[in-house]
Amino acid sequence: MTLRDMALEKMRAAIIAGHFQSGDRLVERPLCDQLGVSRSVVRETIRYLEAEGLVEILPNKGPIVAKLDWENAQQIYEIRMLLETSAAQKCAELAKDGDKKKLGKALGQLKSAYSSGETNDLFEATTLFYQCIFEISGQNVAWEVVQRLNGRISRLRAMTLGTRDRHEAGYKRMEKIYSAIDSNDADAAAAAIKVHLTEAANIAKTLLTAELSKSEK
């Protein structure tokens, strides 16, 4: 792993975890000291994060952590709803025994991640679970779109999982998605995805709306 890769991983994780808040300025010199890299590496890292939608470059101000508001979050959930519902349906229709075994293994890793409470492990296991669904469904282009949104998806996921109800319900929702695919029930798979994402979107809306109201006071 290169210095840039390590810096990118650390910066991305810090933004997703909320160590850098929406609107925070990203100043080169402190970042160089914190990451132990040169200014050129920091600049390159910021460019990558900008492409992922985690950083914005403002005129006369420079890079800041991209603001996370309900208007943008809603669009992300709508895109996910379309792509993930379609992938889950197709996956349920096409899944063979070997595919189900692979997805079941990914679900097992996800269960362990939920039990451990390690944020990075949970994000990696969740991404792997969805990746299996998209690969089995054969929807590779759709998965590329999801990957481009992954930074912002993870940021929203970190926020919603911070609520106790969502953390406890999250794995159960994934189990239902898996169960539907394991039964080759396309309608049930689509319904499970819709319930899962609707629940997450409602929590995100409540949190982001409350945050906006607080900032306006």
From TrEMBL:
Gene3D superfamilies: GntR ligand-binding domain-like, Winged helix-like DNA-binding domain superfamily/Winged helix DNA-binding domain
InterPro entries with a match to the protein in the record: GntR_C, TF_FadR/GntR_C, Tscrpt_reg_HTH_GntR, WH-like_DNA-bd_sf, WH_DNA-bd_sf
Keywords for the protein's UniProt record, in alphabetical order: DNA-binding, Transcription, Transcription regulation
Record has Membrane as a keyword: no
GO molecular function term, any single one: DNA binding
Keyword Transcription part of the UniProt annotation: yes
UniProt name for this protein: Transcriptional regulator, GntR family
Domain HTH gntR-type residues, every copy: 1-68
